[in-house]
Amino acid sequence: MERFTVEDIELKDLDWEFPAGSRYAYADEALADSMARRGLINPILVSGSRPRVVIDGHRRAVAAKALGWGKIACVQSSAVQSPEEAFYAALTARWSPAWPDEDRLVVLSRAEKKFKMPRDKLCGLVLPLLGLRPQEAVLDIYLEVSRMHPDILENIAGRVISVRIAWGLRRFHADDQRLLCRNFSELFHMSMSQQQYCLDTLADWQRSREAKLEAFWNIKEVDAILRHPIWDKHQKGRALFCHLKTIRNPRLAAQETRFYSAAQQISENCAGIEIEAPEYFEDAGYVMKVKLKKPASVDILEQLLRDKKDSLKSLFDIIL
């Protein structure tokens, strides 16, 4: 029996439940345009009988479907027999160290539920194919998150939160989990590290007060940030992050306020110079940005550093 045969296969006879579902949810417009003008240059690779499992060529199959094609040229492999083997083969063909988190969740959930794979296979075989460390703790995180509410999974797919952030949400009641996700998505923007700080601070706040998380969003200062008529989501996120730092570490927040006040005075008197503290401020040192437009700017900068030497040194008294 030949290991490979080439034939035209009905698109309806393909298994459209791809291992990495979200990555191929929509047709690649550039690819579809190329296929419409030139036809299919490379056949897709499939295995099994109806439905044929696509091992390689998922984007081409999706583009063909979007173009309304009835059939597509396929290389049929007899080397891959069982659906589980085809699943592994498809993962191997699409291997990448940077799989999107939503696809990792889809793959692991399918491997666990559809193929009933034991933990040793999931950990030793599937995780490395997804660019993850083959560790039990990593497997537990992804499997647990894959079972969370669809609203949370949708936020992971939308790159609003990461799997790690979703894992951190488990500390909160289910309603609070969805409320946090909705706020991250609709009301303010934070980096992943800021989101983690937010969750840690809110968990401590809720534990100390034994209150529902909804009460936090009704605090006057927080409500004023979220309802600010001019600020965009990034500005609201920065303001809320600063407020959370004030709650968690008032002394450090006061030092940060002093630093920015002093830094602003220096910057106002030195055109072209910006001074920034590290994101969490606890780190030693600060960042000074200078824009040099011409060679003479170097001489101007040198003079400014001499004139402002004492003021620049004084900033270390605040952050160290």
Notes on the structure:
With 320 residues, the protein is an alpha/beta fold. It has 3 domains: 4-81, Conserved hypothetical protein from pyrococcus furiosus pfu- 392566-001, ParB domain (Alpha-Beta Complex); 93-225, no CATH class; 252-319, no CATH class. 56% of the residues lie in helices and 10% in strands. It contains 16 helices and 7 strands. The chain has helices spanning 29-38, 58-66, 83-93, 101-113, 119-129, 136-146, 150-157, 163-168, 174-186, 192-209, 214-217, 220-226, 233-248, 250-268, 296-307, 309-319, and strands spanning 4-10, 14-15, 44-47, 52-56, 71-77, 273-276, 287-290. It has a 5-stranded mixed β-sheet with strand order 1-5-3-4-2, sandwiched between helices. A hairpin with a 4-residue loop joins strand 3 (44-47) and strand 4. The model has no long low-confidence stretch (mean pLDDT 84).
Main attributes of the structure:
single chain, 320 residues, alpha/beta, Conserved hypothetical protein from pyrococcus furiosus pfu- 392566-001, ParB domain, 3 domains, 16 helices, 7 strands
